[in-house]
Amino acid sequence: RRVHGDTSLEHSFLIAHLYYLYRLQTADASVRRPRLRTMAHELDEQVLKYEHFLDEVMRQKLHDVIEERDKLQEQLTQCQQLRANIETLETNRMKEMDTLMNLGCDVYANAHVPDTSKIYIEVGLQYFVQMDLPSAKTFLVKKEQHIRQKCERVTEEACKVKAQIKLFIEALQQVMEL
Question: Residue 21: is it exposed, middle or buried by C-beta count within 10 angstroms (0-12/13-18/19+)?
Answer without folding.
Answer: middle
